[in-house]
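Hi R.,

Quick one: here's the Mn2+/Fe2+ NRAMP family transporter sequence you asked about.
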Amino acid sequence: MTDAPTTTRPRARGVLLGAMFLMATSAIGPGFITQTTTFTAQLGAAFAFAILISILVDVAVQLNLWRVIGVAGVRAQTLANHVLPGAGYVLAALIVFGGLVFNVGNVAGTGLGLDAMAGVDVKIGGAVSAALAVAIFLIRRAGVAMDRILVVLGMLMIALTCYVAIVSGPPVGEALRQSVVPDRVGSDGFVAIVTIIGGTVGGYITYAGAHRLVDAGVKGPERVREISRASVTGVIVTGVMRVLLFLAVLGVVTGGVDVMASDNPPAAAFQAAAGEVGLRLFGVVMWAAAISSVIGASYTSISFIATFSPWLNRNRNWLVAGFIALSAAIYLLIDQPPATLLVLAGALNGVILPVGVGIMLWVAAVRWRDLLNGYRYPKWLLAIGVAGWLVSIFIAVQAMSGIQDLWG
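And here's the predicted structure, written out as tokens:
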């Protein structure tokens, strides 16, 4: 899926918006909603501190990755192969595996969303949603359609969650205070920070927006300002959704409702805040989050292998459609959600993160003359990136411990 390398200003703005929301909506999936609800119930207003820290780390990582990939004008796997022959193939294999496993969970999320929204059987809902996602990539101007659909879905999720956040009556002032001076953080808060950082910049999510800009021809040193603005805005969109969802659940929790007693805590929170209407709104938000993540995971995963041969590149849209179909088939054939594989994929994404970030920072610091077209990378930005990379290494260590515990 490529766009013409030269675009009009309105189209360029559409591409930038699409890239922002591709990254943001890829991060806002079923796991995002469940994690935010769970940690809010555990930590209360103190979770605001974890959200603030995660947003700062997200900005540090995404600002660097988008700039390196955007200025170079090639995808991450190509840069990795230039730095260390074969590294791009390894990175691509890890990204595709993690993307496929997560996509099974995303398809399952669409079924849960339609069930809460309209009482549709979860298997039927997942199949119909996957078919809709496939159709998007089989139309003639799939890139344009994807950009527009993701912007609409992202705005829909934000608007509906904002409504629930308002009616739940959260203690906003207390949340603001504890975002800077939390009453407690402890081990639970520490786990929350590590988990939500891995969930918003781990695996394929890290590269989604940057690869979209390269595909659309928004690249090169002369586009640095647009690339940087898009990367930060994408993180902010994700952060806004996280904050609104946090406030919606916080209002319910501080009102004395035990959402964790339910089999579906996010649905229980929405229902407690707005009654039956809230439950239906949860269904819409869950479906929008899941279907946009299906699109993002599939598009980005295939972008990692399309450069390996001309045939793959020519048939990208069919490969994306096949990726979605395979994810749906796995979901329909298993009796239960692949919990073990989802945990493994989540841990694997945490391991992948410092590898990819480290390679991109090496390009910025050492290979800028040849791979960045002579663009002198700002030292302050490199320093921020290194700080984010060190955090990602710690996340990787924690993720590896999780893998050992899983297969112990």
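The mean pLDDT is 87.

Cheers,
M.
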